[in-house]
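Schema walk-through. Below, the input block comes first and the output block second. Nothing else is stored per chain. Lengths vary across the set, and this one has 325 residues.
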Amino acid sequence: MRAALYDRHGPASEVLRVEDVERPEPGPGQVRVRIEASGVNPTDWKSRSGATPRPMATFQIPHLDGAGVIDAVGEGVDPARIGQRVWLWLAAAGSPWGTAAEWSVVPQEKAVPLPGNASAELGASLGVPAMTAHRCLFAGGPIDGKTVLVAGGAGAVGHYAIELAKRAGARVITTVSGPQKAELAAKAGADLVVNYREADAAGEIRAFTGDAGVDHVVEVALGTNLKLDLAVIGNGAQIACYAAEPADPALPVRACMTANLVLRFVLLYNVPTEAMIRAARDITDAVADGALTELPVTRFSLDDIAAAQDAVESGAVGKVLVIPG
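--- output ---
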């Protein structure tokens, strides 16, 4: 099969290459998926570059997310799964067989049935963004009736956080940096979209929430946004942070204590498998309901994988996909 791979860390154009490699066979408890679309996330270029390196044996086919059709199963897997459309999560975690290839093999629980109303492109866009959003929203309990602030509502995690929170019965505020992103966030269903670069962003949010403040924050940049978060949260609020900035933030402990703030950090690689499986089930149900939608998509061929990863590293708006076929 044709696959993109690397065997050392470095810039995309220097270490990524496309080669013919032996097509993998599924082992016990595994399925093999013919990949129709491979989703690119920031964690993919960070792992490849060496910024956040993952263990690598001889080579690594990148990308955690994807969608396709099961064409072979290993021992212990129901043969009826052959021919099933699926979306994949964390395919390349602890495995060389990421989704930037014509085929991938994954443990059967990481290949989740894709509802018939969903495209392969939507399926390949779920994985890391939707599961991160789910964990940030629900790890602390139900959010029905609560007010949720989603930082960066036009990003992939922010997009699914808005949609999952609305589906769960929350009021959703989101912050963005400009008109194009505001349009995307509003389309996802946010009740209030605020440009965080405006001088009175906190006042605009407070006018919406009243004295109660925000109950829950899904945060992409804790250091940058903590001042705003503390200005708008209510007593006992939770902030769930899923990304790291180049410099660690200084934490104003007294202000956090005064707010009785709960601060949670989320990294999917270390979330218990049982919680990930529950999240995948909830996300699939939301897709079947039509509650989760596609972001604008930029497609790259497998031969252009370096450009695809560079686009994500440069902050491309929407979702970047690699199409192996």
